[in-house]
Amino acid sequence: MYALNTDEARKADSAGSQIRELGAYVGKFTQAEDIVSKNTGTKGIAFRFESVGGQKAQFSIYVQKSNGERLSGMNILMALMTCLKLRNIAPTPGKVSFYDYDQKKELTRDGSVFADLANKPIGVLLETEGYINSKGAEASRLVFKAPYQAETRLTASEILDRKTTPQMLDKLTASLRHRPAKKAPAAQNGGHEDFDGTFSSGPSDDDIPW
Length: 210
What we know:
The chain is mainly beta. The protein has helices at 6-11, 73-83, 156-160, 169-175, and strands at 23-36, 43-51, 56-64, 92-100, 105-113, 122-132, 138-148, 178-179. It is globular, with a radius of gyration of 18 Å.
């Protein structure tokens, strides 16, 4: 015998579906893997995200070149730590889920993960980006533009400014766009490899409100 659960019934509409459209989504990171680009040695984080409605997505940010130069992905990481009220994070050994295209199923392996970033409510702003894949065809992937605090809708700068009313999220959401494909091979690991080198140093400890 089974009793109707309407919450579970609603999830059937989106369960297992992939996020393909740009926009603002609330959910959690189910995995935050410490990664290094095979081509360049650039360090980054590969995220697996699941929305409240059950939609899933994968995207990466690259934060530091092999020579120590910081990239604009570091801005996103610092904003994410702000939204989650984390002063420090460090990778630890853990199991990493991945899709094996030969076996056509999900598998796990030993890896390095940022456990403090996972399984906590978070909002993400996602853009889309065209790219040329290894077969020379145009494809599209998600780009992690910025995080925001799920419960308050506050962005990182608003949290640091001790604001209590969200004002920036709607503007940032309206500014999201699709980036046309560049005539270059796709980045390794299926992520967004960003090499413009911009970085904000962030606040001093006295400026951190937690």
